[in-house]
Design brief:
The complex is a heterodimer of chains A (110) and B (336). Chain A has one domain. In chain A, α3 runs antiparallel to α4 and α4 packs across α6. With 110 residues, chain A is mainly α. The two termini of chain A are 31 Å apart. Helices cover 25% and strands 28% of the residues of chain B. In chain B, β3 and β4 form a beta hairpin. Classes of the chains: A mainly alpha (110), B alpha/beta (336). Chains A and B meet through α2 of A and β15 and β16 of B.
Chain lengths: 110, 336
């Protein structure tokens, strides 16, 4: 193929017709509190890792719901499991369990 | 013979109920534990959405009481059914009544329970009720040192929508109260910077959305994120942290005053009165309605009625409407 020096743009729009939301479904079954987030940001505001990296538990969950499992799984490795977010969450989401389930999904999700 | 109705609580719910029952010719005994009528509203400076003085509402209710027998500084200890009526024990004297209306209201969420926000620890962390007191006394917010604040942050949902303090419900009125107070701060101190930290802005009533727009046009900054913690820094100022969830970045800022928008909590002591009368308490800790849709003011006990914020967070308008509905229920019961 001739190299024209540029490639077609990949659409950045979220297409929920094509999105693979299997990880979101799996997490909701394994840890039902995954569904209860109201995106208040308490977890990210208190996050030790998030002060130095782009890591945000809230955004990671959101990525999973949009079908971006690959990015989310990469993100989950940044968490230091300190548990402050679990203490701050007003909806009692079991954040640490979700992180460990996402990390496990790394090896088990197709 | 004229029938007697006992109303427990002299806030807006109790006052409107008393006023209407009076106009129907009933003998009304209104019990109030403090020495003033008007409840929480009497402690407020101005009201949303039109910034009217709260004292106007309270005085219009107290001045139209007719023959209501108001019994202040009197705490009701127990209410017992006797023969066809009730015996109310209050401050070691007994009163008889044919029907009872519980209008016991609410209490403000004790903000010190949300320890990480620093109320009671840091002198410039105050509640929305404290700010109303400042407006009443000084017409503007003042730092504990007496200095003029330059930056003020309002924190929504303190003691509301928070399972960590066992208050999972929305208190309804704090969003619009914060917006009202933010505007008042901008009006009193035009050079100040005012921020509202919110999760959702629940502007459900007439004129509320207009108030939100007014706040925006007056320069109030809205940041979508819940406060995680506050800490005291130099000069008694306060450092607060949240996530700016719309930008997906953690955020910190220093302010001169933090205002915690405290929610409405069930009043301690009401539950015992209610359960002794056979009433049930709902999941949020308020008195449960017989039927949320078709009978919000009736109870499972004949002759006992409920009105106002003892049934859940409410604004003045809805409380007044509920009082009128309760009066009709009481009237139907006593005319049966």
């Amino acid at each position: 193929m001739i190299d024209f020096g540029f490639t077609p743009l990949v659409a950045s729009i979220t297409d929920l017709d094509k999105a693979n939301v299997n990880l979101a479904k799996q997490l909701t079954e394994q840890e039902p509190s995954f569904a209860l987030c109201i995106s208040c940001g308490s977890c990210s505001a208190t996050c030790t890792a998030g002060q130095f990296t782009k890591f945000s538990f809230r955004v990671m969950c959101h990525q999973i719901r949009k079908g971006n499992a690959k990015e989310a799984i990469a993100e989950a490795s940044k968490c230091m499991l300190c548990g402050k977010c679990t203490l701050a969450c007003p909806r009692n989401v079991n954040t640490r369990n979700i992180i460990s389930l996402v990390r496990k999904a790394q090896t088990t999700t197709p | 013979m004229t029938k007697t109705v006992a109303i427990i609580g002299g806030g807006v719910a109790g006052l409107e109920t008393a006023k209407q029952l009076n106009s129907l010719g009933y003998s009304v005994k209104l019990f109030e534990k403090t020495n003033t009528l008007g409840g929480h509203v009497a402690k407020w400076d101005r009201l949303f959405p039109n910034k009217r003085h709260a004292s106007e509402v309270v005085s219009s209710l107290t001045l139209s009481q007719g023959n209501t027998q108001t019994i202040t500084e009197t705490t009701v200890h127990s209410i017992k059914r006797e023969n066809q009526g009730f015996v109310i024990s209050a401050n070691s004297s007994n009163h008889e009544a044919d029907a009872v209306v519980l209008a016991t209201g609410f209490e403000l969420f004790p903000a010190e329970k949300k320890e990480e926000y620093g109320y009671g620890l840091f002198e410039n962390v105050i509640t929305s009720a404290d700010l109303e007191q400042m407006f009443k006394k000084h017409g503007k917010p003042v730092m504990a040192s007496g200095h003029k604040p330059v930056r003020i942050a309002f924190i929504h949902c303190v003691g509301s929508r928070d399972e960590k303090v066992n208050r999972p419900y929305c208190s309804k009125v704090c969003c619009v109260t914060a917006v009202k107070q933010a505007i008042e701060v901008k009006e009193a101190l035009p050079n100040s910077e005012v921020f509202c930290f919110y999760m959702d802005l629940r502007m459900f009533g007439p004129g509320y959305e207009d108030l939100y727009k007014e706040a925006q046009s007056k320069g109030v900054t809205f940041i979508r994120g819940r406060l995680s913690e506050s800490s005291e820094i130099e000069g008694g100022r306060v450092l607060i942290k949240a996530e700016d969830t719309l930008a997906s970045t953690p955020l910190k800022m220093s302010v001169d005053i933090v205002v915690l928008m405290v929610g409405m909590s069930p009043l301690r002591g009401t539950n015992k009165l209610a359960t002794d009368l056979g009433l049930s308490i709902n999941a949020d800790g308020f008195i449960a309605a017989t039927d949320l849709h078709t009978n919000p003011t009736g109870t499972a006990t004949n002759g006992v009625f409920v009105v106002g914020a003892c049934t859940g967070p409410n604004n003045i308008t809805d409380t007044i409407n509920a009082a009128k509905a309760t009066v009709l229920d009481v009237h139907n019961y006593l005319s049966r």
